Structure formats: C-alpha cells, structure tokens
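Appendix C reproduces, verbatim, an entry submitted by the partner laboratory led by Prof. M.T., so that reviewers can inspect both the input and the predicted structure.
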Amino acid sequence: MRQAVATAWYRYRIPVVIDLARNPLPQYLARLAPSSQLTMRYILQDAADRLGFVDADIADVPWHLLEPGHVIGLVAALRADGYAPNTSSLYVNAVRGVMNEAWRLGLIDHEQLLRIREVKPASGSRLPPGRNLRRSLIRELMEVCAADPRPQGVRDAAILALLYGTGMRKSESVDIDLAQVDFDERCVQVLGKGNRQLLKYAPAWAFDKLQAWLDLRRQHLPAGERDDSFLFNRIRRGSHITRARITKHAIYYIARQRGAQVGAKIMPHDFRRAFITRVIEEHDLSIAQKLAHHANIQTTAAYDRRDDNERRRVVERFDY
C-alpha cells in the first residue's frame, strides 16, 4: 500500500502550499489544545510516512490533494498492523481535521471534503482502558505515602488525593498555581480542555493532604524567601525540594511507583475513572457529567466502571 500511494503522489513531492497562512496543517494544529498538538502531530507524521512521505516534513505534505482512496488505504494499513479501532479513528479524525482546514482555506471544494468524510475508520471495539480504583486501594496508597519519611511521601499523597478527590486530569494538576486554590470553599480552579476555566471541588481529607504538603514545603524554604507560586514541586534525589514545577511525566511516574508499592498497575487517568464511577454509584450520571465537565453525557458514561465490580461480585459468589 505504501508503495502504491508513494507512486501516486510522487508528482506532488514538490511542496504545493508554501505560505503558512494557506497551509491547512498548522491551521488545524493551532485549533487544538497544547496537550493535544503533540499527539496529533505524531499521528499525522505516521500517517504521512504510511502515505509515502517518509522523509518529508508534515508541513510540506500536500494534504489538500488527498483522495478518499488514500484514506481507505491508510485505514487498511492500520488494520493490517493490528491497530485498535479507536486508534484508527484517531488517524481518520486527524486527517479529516486537516481537510476541514483545507476547505476553509479554499484549497478544496465541499464535494471533495464530503467524500473524505465518507471514509470510515476500522469498525469494532476493544475493552475500555484503565481500571476502577477501589476505595480500599486508595486507602492503601495513602498509607504507603504516609510511611515514606521523605518529602515525596507528603507531596505524592497530596497529588493522588487531588486527582482522586476532584477527578481532574494529570495535565490540569501540574498547571495549578497556589492562587487558584480556595481552602475555604475547598475548590481548585484549573484550565481544562478547550481552554475552559473550571472549578474542581475536593473533599476535606484531600485538602488536609494538600495543606500538609504546603506546610512541609514552607518549612524547607530558606529564611526570608517567598513561597513558590505553583502547587507541586519537583523533588530531586536526596529529598531536595527544587523551585521547579512538577511535570506530567512525573505524575505518571508517581502513579506507577505508588501503585507498584501496593501491588497494582495504576495510570494517572485511573483516578479520574474512579472518581466518575463513584459519583455515578452514589448519585447519578448527570451529576457525574457536571463534575467531570464533559460536554457530552455519553463521554461520562464511557468512564463508568461499575459493571466491572458487579460482574466480579456475581462470579465470586459461585461455589463448588
């Protein structure tokens, strides 16, 4: 497939779109959140490679010359390589996004856009990723952090408590500034997807963990120096609290490390899944949607992991 596409597009190897203001790719990426731009850039680079542009910068690829057959071939190649249907959808949506921008810029007509949109990603489904974290597991994580005598123990407890207690994303947690935390109302202002300012409420015990971290951090400040403006710091080996903001990669590492200590494989997003599932269990789907700040209630429903627990309980009651 790659060879066929490369041959078909060979005559277009000279960049057709030179003016950045008329290039659909940067126009499409500019519409995305910073956290999504890197992912979609990787997706489109791989798509370009599969379409025969192995050595080309994706900004030089003439995306507006794409035909439905190219996208169909891309979907077939992804299926042959064992990519999941959701991943295939991601590739197709990325291409559609660039083609939408090509249409807005007048590089293609509406008929060509509609023909591209008619191409469907691979059908099928996979089991939903991640897991629901039981409350007993959350308690075990807090105990593991409490048993850690280093500053990391107090900080990690605050991070995990905030992820679970609010259901926020890891990207939101690293960007929080101290001024965005309201201890009286027990809420945190975050900048969520779509550049939206959101209020995340947390239980009292989560704010207790957060206060313990801030107290410890201030104790380690040199005399006369002001507190950091952000919420969570990087901590180097030797338990040195730096004056640098923590990164998303560090949040991932903390979740995996603390999970391994309690014998569980945990991803940062599992705390959000557990938060939404618990709200659905104890309240209802509409409340969960509001607290998760989902525009579509079906997105919230996809986070529901109650079935996992219920099926497990049914099977566990079977005797022999």
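The radius of gyration is 24 Å. Additional entries are available on request from the coordinating office.
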